[in-house]
Please model this.
Amino acid sequence: MAGPVRITGARITPVAFDDPPLLNAVGIHEPYALRAVIQLDTDAGLVGLGETYADEGHLRRLNAAAGVLAGQDVFALNGMYRAVADVLGGDTGSDGHGLTGMITTSGTVDRVFSPFEVACLDVQGKILGRPVSDLLGGAVRDTVPFSAYLFYKWAAHPGRGADSWGEALDPDGIVTQARRMVGDYGFTAIKLKGGVFAPEQEIEAVRALRAEFPGHPLRIDPNAAWTVPTSLHVAKELDGIIEYLEDPTPGLDGMAEVARQAPMPLATNMCVVAFDEIAPAVARGSVSVVLSDHHYWGGLARSKLLSGICDTFGLGLSMHSNSHLGISLAAMVQLAAATPNLTYACDTHWPWKTQDVIAPGTFTFRGGSVAVPAGPGLGVELDEDALAALAELYLSCGLRNRDDTGYRQSIEPGFVKRTW
Amino acid sequence: MAGPVRITGARITPVAFDDPPLLNAVGIHEPYALRAVIQLDTDAGLVGLGETYADEGHLRRLNAAAGVLAGQDVFALNGMYRAVADVLGGDTGSDGHGLTGMITTSGTVDRVFSPFEVACLDVQGKILGRPVSDLLGGAVRDTVPFSAYLFYKWAAHPGRGADSWGEALDPDGIVTQARRMVGDYGFTAIKLKGGVFAPEQEIEAVRALRAEFPGHPLRIDPNAAWTVPTSLHVAKELDGIIEYLEDPTPGLDGMAEVARQAPMPLATNMCVVAFDEIAPAVARGSVSVVLSDHHYWGGLARSKLLSGICDTFGLGLSMHSNSHLGISLAAMVQLAAATPNLTYACDTHWPWKTQDVIAPGTFTFRGGSVAVPAGPGLGVELDEDALAALAELYLSCGLRNRDDTGYRQSIEPGFVKRTW
Model:
């Protein structure tokens, strides 16, 4: 198969899957999370898989990109990136990007290009009969460690049956949740999504986690819900307890102010989410750790670039997660395996979902880690029936854009995003 | 060929080839330039090619690296890099790196790893039946433009016959040299190696080039032979005439001082030659353009990382050259083709040599550019007879380390490297 392998088209299928009522600073997860599955068809008969957000504006842009990728060779990624940039023109992508208003500055071209790049790498790997990690310099680890991702949550979405996790609205609830998650998956690091309650309660929850899990690295992420003084207060209270403090406060300047006095590293997936934000962050000393995410950093090769930049500028590297399915996990694992300086356990929402579009059995968490799939490409296989079912759920569920704030306000009309 | 393709060994052959008496700030090119040719053998029978320096210390390190690479899969580049770093330990590589004392801070691991990485990519391309550029994101240009590389020179090495280029010791000589080089190769950009004569004469030479070639972008590179005030004087005199001023003065601080006042961009292949020099250079604003060189930036993938860093931090990108043969040109061209932000014409010493180790006919300069070889891997074939002849020349010529200063002093005992 030495000649070009040309893209003949892309099937872009929005899907929905059940999502528990997980609380965050801007609201609460809706009953369904939305994703788009990309099946990239080629004239060699090989099909590449990708997964991304499914908000309406994003779907529109994905379709525009797919139009200019037809006819391209699957190795011509530099040219494809330029073609996607050209077709999107000056589109800033501010309407709907699946990140619920918490990340507004990620690069539109990178966000739209990403799933196609992943799908091309999947095809490349299938041509070679090798895992995608081999196309990224080769795996330096056989398994990739993830972090338990704890959320304050309600017992159930209003009017619907309770999920199996139950309520978690205080430190006890969080510790109970953590016990199950660590018990079921073996996670050796723990992250708490904060910014939901007053900082004193969240400090108490982290301390309770420390008491219960004395050896686990801990993190808290309030999604920039705190002022600089509050951030510094929490930082002081959690000194020696958390491995990094994630996005305590908004903006490069606020983060820099906290960073100058906080005793632990600051991490971000909010104030550095695009390549043009790196230089200002470095100049200000805003963060010590960047959470990469191939979904908005332009795919796996550009996430490798981000990792090289972090290595070059003395920044640590971790990995961010949104609610995702198995194609995304495969891409995350292939990338993480081939990124030597990714030394923190990655985030994943994996335990919170009960459905998927990939054939079951590929990923099993042992000791909090999953093995890098050894099969060609991403190493996952699409389950066509499952895809059809979740595509049907997308059509019937009525959700078209993620809106954690609006959903919570529909239940609690007085809810407003707070800053502590 | 879906299983691993393992390295079985590396044949490292030092070669010598005739080099004209080209002058620079530290001395003069010796009668022979030294290079090492790497033939990387694999259990699939495919052989990968690489080319690098051949100074004795470097050869010793190449052999140490080859020892730890045997048995590795040709796609396991991340692991190989770590293995090379491990075997070199704290070796700073200060003895002999083929760069004649002008670049002393390049990374030893990157310099030693580079030719093996290139050879692995050559094998990868051969496995795929695709050019190396496809492994770097795909070519964005079919031809790669190079710059004419002018040198002050003597008519002949003492005691040897004259070469075909004749003497060039004043502006007229430089213009004559440029006429032939542009005439024969069609170069559309011109670089003058300076730091040889007093700045006023070199300014005059650049002005003479401008008069003769009104449309060609011009550059001058005195290899840091000037003080800050001299650099600023030259910058003022050549305002509007040169596209960038290359390494006028030594060090990040000196360059930053010049950069603050010079009207044109400053470029470097001396003060930013390793990844750990990038952050300090960015912080100081020392340079606007980095000349990449895969021979000391750790190979083609890490040169792509450098290009991504330059793009991210608003730095321009050009390409440096040492005296080299066809394997290096192939690697330079594959890299340049797949590097979208490499927008300056690259340097090459190509016209100054009369011998090679590759089969002739692959590279023809048209309009100053060469076509990207379309064949698998690097797209060049080793000429075993030519390799044997240049290996014999290495053995008989007696040179074992590059020493432009010592050679010039052997002819002119009073010569010392000057600073103007």
User: Anything to note?
Assistant: Residues 108-128 of chain A form the longest helix (21 residues). Residues 32 and 397 of chain A are 8 Å apart (CA to CA). DSSP finds twelve helices and 14 strands in chain A.
